[in-house]
Every structure is written in structure tokens, then in C-alpha cells.
Design brief:
Helices cover 73% and strands 1% of the residues. The protein has 16 helices and 2 strands. The chain has a two-stranded antiparallel ribbon with strand order 1-2. It is globular and about 70 Å long. The two termini are 31 Å apart.
Length: 306
Amino acid sequence: MKQKKEAAGLHNTLVYVRQHWQLYVCFLLPALALTVIFKYIPMGGILIAFQDYNPFKGILGSKWVGFKSFTRFLSSPDFMSYLVNTLKLSVYGLLWGFPVPIILAFLLNRIQSKGIKKKVQLMLYLPNFISVIVLCGIVRIFLSVTGPVNLLLGTQINFMTMPQAWRTIFIASGIWQGAGWGSIIYTAALANASQDLREAAVIDGANIFQQIKVVEWPAIKDVVIIQFILQAGNIMSIGFEKAYALQTDLNLASSEIISTYVYKQGLISGDFSFSTAVGLFNTIINVILLVSVNTIVARMNEGQGL
């Protein structure tokens, strides 16, 4: 009986869409046109990676060189250095940064007073609205030789020139800026947690960790899995602006990553073909990681992935 009702409902919906198709076209056409113009058409630019690109001759007139740019990058003595720096920054950022919004959501969910909760949320969300460049300026000021950190420690260390400290600075500042905003989706998911189950757990003597495990974690588990897959799939896509803004000549051993290398080769040196090849390589690695992580998580989570 239920299946018949669902089939009837689907049939009625299709009939309605068929009768009023002009309305749907009017709504969908602008979005479709924008997607094609700004997302799909620019993909043709990846042909530059296989050419000796000349801006005056254009894509169609430039000489085809195949995988020459890819071979040049993969055989470069600095290739492993850029790849390792990128992977370390991404993996460490994921391992340290991913759990923080979840923990914040659990903590916010323990606050009973709505007024206090809103004020705390406001303070946590504010850093997200700071420009990346402004954030980097604040970091540089705080960690300068005459900055507050050195005054507090009684030292005169320029942390921004230390390759061994740069990665920690990058990751820690990113967590501070994005953790509060990232907790929104988990806080919203926790609203679906059963209050009756929580009250029953409290009556049965469950402590905070047991309440989280039994009541709250199941409510956000699927969201956590999806977010982890998406972030792991973008593990090679580190924000260029922040890495470049925090970069100095003395910390290049840790701060030179693929995205900053692409910028320097493409826009500063004008080697468009090579920089496009490096960027395409980066994208391919991202896609492989996304598919791999999704497959692994699906196997570990009873077939549930993206």
C-alpha cells in the first residue's frame, strides 16, 4: 500500500513538472549557464599543460609537446621537497584540525543557557570573518622579535624565519580561525540528538563521555564521515594566499608548497605551460585521494560513503 502511494506521488510530481516545464527552465537555465561558463568552459585551459603555450598564438596555435612539462616537474630535484611539504602541511592540518570543531560542538551542546551559548558562539565564529591577509599580519606581529610572544617569554626569537616552526604556526593559526565556524554543521546535527535518550542516560548514571558516545555521537556520525571524506579528498588543496603571505626567504624549506610554486612559475616567471601541468598534477592527486578515502571509509562504515 505504501509503495502504491509513493508511486502515485511520483507520478503526480512528474505530471506537474511536465505541465509547467517552462517555469523550471526559467529557474534552472541561469544557474546552468553560469556553471557551464565559469566551471566547464575554463577546463579547456588544461590543454596548456600539454603545449609550449604562447599567449600571442593562443591555445589553438601553440605547439603541442605532450607530457614534457610533467616530465620536467617529476624529474626536478625539488619535486619531492614540494610534494612532502604539501603532504605534511595537509595531513598534519587534517589530523590536528579536524577533531577540534567536533569537540567544540560537543562542548557548546553542554551549555544550557541560551544567552551564554550565543555569546560563546559569537566569539568562536568571529575569527572566520578576518581576512587571510589580515590574519597573517596579526601572526607576523605577534611572533616578531618585539612581539607579545617574545615579550612574554623574555626572548628575541624571530619565529617566522624558523622552518621548523613555520608548519606549526600555519596549522595553529588555521585552527584558531576556522574551528569555530566549522563547528556550526556539527552543532546543527547535534540538535537532532534525542533529548529523551539523554535524560534516560543521565537517570541511569551515565557520565558526560558515555552520553556523548551513546546519544550525541550517533546523531553526527554521518556528518563527520562526509566532512572527513571531503577534507581528505582536498588534502593537496592548501590555501595559497596564507602560505604565500607567511612565507619568507628563510623558511622556504618548509613553506614552499605546490600551490606557491605554481604561482611563482606561472604568474611571476610566466611559464604558463609548466605551472598548468603542476596544477593539473595536484588536481589528479586530489581526485585519487578523494576516491581512495571514500572507498576505505565505505568499507569501514558498512558501505556508507559519499
